[in-house]
Amino acid sequence: MVQELYHFIGGKRTKGRSGKFGDVFWPMTGEVAAKVPLADASEVWDAVQNAKAAQIGWAATNPQRRARVMMKFVDLLNRDMETLALVLAKEHGKTIPDAKGDIQRGLEVAEFAIGAPHLMKGEYTEGAGPGIDIYSLRQPLGVVAGITPFNFPAMIPMWKFAPAIVCGNAFVLKPSERDPSVPLMLAELMMEAGLPPGILNVINGDKTAVDALLDDPEIAGIGFVGSTPIAEYVYKRGTANGKRVHAFGGAKNHMIIMPDADMDQAVDALIGAGYGSAGERCMAVSVAVPVGQATADALVAKLIPKVESLKIGPSTSNDADFGPLVTKAHLQKVRDYVDLGIKEGAKLKVDGRSFKMQGYENGFYMGGCLFDNVTSDMRIYKEEIFGPVLSVVRAKDYAEALRLPNEHEYGNGVAIFTRDGDAARDFTAKVNVGMVGVNVPIPVPLAYYTFGGWKRSMFGDLNQHGPDAMRFYTRTKTVTSRWPSGTKEGAEFSIPTMK
User: Fold this and answer.
1) CATH number for the domain that contains residue 259
2) Mean residue pLDDT across the chain
3) What is the DSSP code (8-state) at residue 464?
4) How many domains does the chain have?
5) Closest Cα to residue 225, out of 315, 128, 151, 313?
6) Which are the catalytic amino acids?
7) Count of C-beta atoms within a 10 Å radius of residue 487
8) Residues 16 and 153 reside in one and the same domain
9) Distance between CA 296 and CA 419 in Å, rounded?
10) Residues 366 and 380 in one domain
11) In which domain, by residue range, is 318 found?
12) CA distance 345 to 93
């Protein structure tokens, strides 16, 4: 029997009333496992009103007590790790170990958020002028929202709601309708941790729900992660409505392999970063850039057998390299990109399009694909494929290798593999990309640094997690204070100065 899911509003499960539903698949089998309600504008309004009513009391709760709720939540995440990972793997398609990594990276941001009492401290200057003290406060925005993607159904919701909530905001989460069960489970765990009803609401939906959040006057800030066209749409519509918005979009992450690089290390890095999670990561390496003909020939020769021997398995596997893609439609989209690459003249060295998983013939599986002799004018180079497809773009020298990521419209992540410290230092200084790895293929910063790309990979001024998250979900109030001394001074008509 197909399960019917729900929204989570005001601290309780709420049955959808729009009459519209979406299918939630198990990608490893291809079967419909659940129906998720797709909210109309009135259901979004309910969630926002619940958040608004609860936020005033939550903001008045001292930061240490808010942090204690997050501390308990982290304990519960560790307690339920196995259960959450299994549900996540079944609905998304990533393997159990990968699903645990998804949860762990979100958990680490929740751990960072426990430091809110320190991170929200303002500044104080005594005696800034004659009898005048000046101090600043960091106060919550009020009601904020997050619109999160399918590829990290645990991590990215926690990247959004954990810092927002400890800062004293109420939060409305609109997760992907493709894999909504884990976000709903996270909301219930937050309640178990002691969060008051209404502070974290989960509303499932499609564009109707997104537009309702973007247009609701009670929503003060919105965080988004997804494709670049939608990120730009969210940013423009949200900011036009007076909201603070940061919207993270697509990527085309390059990995530069210098002639002096440890080739075995570089190949292993490419295999893991390019094909892990079936390439459905915004930080996946999708472009390998070997410098020099000899480097390129050696790299491709070592990559081919590695890609051919990738172990693909069901989502419940603990030892597969990667599992199925998220939907049948997305699988077809990735296959179409491979067809396109052949038409464009790239050399397909490994073809995984026809892969079928024995016993799971209806699942959304695809083997690893490897292209060589890809050029920068090809669509398979320009566009984000979001699948297990790696393109090798040969660069004649370091200058050309640096130019490729610098001139690409996306600027999310990049890496260089080399033994030369001077080359690495020059690269990190000159590359026009937000996150850089040196002999690290997926340079995702730890929770106490910020995550964010440049160019069309990000719209907005502040990044995700780390100190930027605390800045994004708060606003600064500055107070200039003077207490009367009993001496009559008379009116002052010029602008105050510290002279």
Assistant:
1) 3.40.309.10
2) 95
3) B
4) 2
5) 151
6) 282
7) 6
8) yes
9) 17
10) yes
11) 253-438
12) 31
